[in-house]
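Hi support team,

I'm filing this because I wasn't sure whether my run with iron/sulfur cluster finished correctly. The job status page said complete, but I'd like someone to confirm that the output block is well-formed before I use it downstream. Pasting the exact inputs I used:
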Amino acid sequence: MRAVATEHPAIPPHPVEGYAGTSSSGFAAEVAAERAIAQLDYVEDLYRDWNDGHRTSGGAASRVNAEFDRIRRELGDLPGIIASPARLRIMLQHLTKTLHPGVLNDCFYQPSTALCAKRAKHAGRPLPLLTMCLTCPNARRSSVHLPRLTTARAQAQRPLDAPAGLSRLQTAALTTHIADLDHAIAELTATGTPDA
Ligand code: SF4
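And here is everything the job wrote out:
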């Protein structure tokens, strides 16, 4: 699987967000086209990773994996074998519409179940995400996220190993965060056949 970062490094910034003032030129359209290709590359990587039998987890895993399963049956792919890469890319296209690649998980955004949207609506303003994605129904984790989850876990543990100066609230927040990360790591490293 190709390596990815917070926002997939090969995915150029959204033309409006990343290149202010260029929307009247053809440059913005070019960037948007490159971004669309990079998104599709990323979804194809996710499909191949899943089709190779690697584990996934997160609230959106069963939804996305069910879609992968439907595509696999329709294309006649076998585990580890892609019958038609060109047709596969066409069939994966729609998933790029809601996909937001992330560091500790990807987000397959659905407004009705988005924890971040619910919290923002409740408070009437955007709220910090903190670790909300870890427990959101829209999150999906795969093997690309595993080393980052492990690194995040080690970073969260470090202050607890030398807790001088940590408040009780900080300690509690770190402890909860570590428990969430442990759960996420365990889901991706469990033995046995992954669920579809
Ligand atoms: S909280 Fe959920 S919907 Fe919001 S960014 Fe994270 S995974 Fe996506």
